[in-house]
Amino acid sequence: MGARASDESGGWPFISVQIVTYKRPAFLLQALRQIEAQDYPGAVEAIVMDDSPTPNQEVEGEFSFARYFHLTSRRSIGEKRNLAVAEAARSGADIICIWDDDDVFTVDRLRQQVARMVQRPANCSSIQVAFVAVLASGKLLRCKGLPLPFENSFCFRRAWLESRPRFSNCSLGEGNVVFEGLEDWFSEAQPIDGEELPFLYVRTERSTSPDDALEPYEVRSMISEPSRLDLPLLSLARSFLRHRWPELGGHGARALQIAQVPYSDLSDGFQEALRAAWAADLAWMRNVTGGAALAPAYWAALTADAEAPEAPEAGEAWGGGGGAEDLGPEAALELLEAGLHLRMADAKVRKKPSSKKETKTEPKAQAEEPLRIWGFKVNPSALPELLLVLAIAAVFGAVCASRLDMSRQSAVICGLFVALQAQRIIRGIRDWVAYKT
User: Are 179 and 188 in contact (CB under 8 A)?
Assistant: First the structure.
């Protein structure tokens, strides 16, 4: 992503991202960092319309792609959107993208939406609101209502948007007028399913999203009734596993971290709800008759090859695959349990705060030089485990040779097999202890 003057976009349209904001400097900076992290190959600018009492001095100095406008009088959201559209026209932008300051998108949002618009071709692109992050309670909600897109996820071709009525002079439903008079506004909006392109619709104290349409409920499981996988939720979990979310600094994004303290990445936030759902689902599949039959598909949905495609092919949906047809229920359950423990241990380690005193007084540890044993490099810290494995192999091999009348070669193979299984058990116990402590 870069400024248009120096961009070699290879034909990708020039995008003008508009952010309208009021008295939320931390959210504004978070949104700009998300835009900066986008993997879009073409040119991108951000136009900020801010009618806060005092201007934000950090924006233009820190973000070279941003054009910041401080409005001296209070304006409606619709008015600010119209002002941003006019500035995008002055820039010569091809696409206008709406980006609310409090929502959180994956790093491929712009590329995926524009690729779909170019392929179809379409005048608009939007994203279904499938997940709601509630800041006050720290809860992740799933929407089971209508697959509605809101203004905060739209991309428009500028030429088409300028041919439509302007945004209404209001701060609720200001974009409805854009689609007035169209026979099928839903088809024109081209909403992308939340399973394909997940994002977190963030609800603050000032949010006005209609619960009667979205029907949000708290996430407790990724299995819907009766005994069916909730593929959009599994897709959201998979997007965390595949690091499709930006790593942000600063504060004010409770959607990424339940407590309002500085955060490093998404895994310390609402991903906790997904881990808890994963654990509950695993217990259900183990304990309910017939539940294990879902395990292979559940594992495949979590580990499917979900890399977002490039330009025109981007219209294809992601998901499926993962070799589920090669996995039996028990094998899939074991993989799910091992994966869950690894994710929980990893999160536990990353949540531990570092001590400033230690960083000031303790020198950095030097990397251990590997030992050479019979020409092989061996990490000194792994030497005790290696010796233990060899000892188990030797003892069990000797028992096999003496008690079971095995040949020496067969006894060695059996000894090594048992030793490797013992090593797996030891490592599993060690990871479990690390997680608990």
Answer: yes
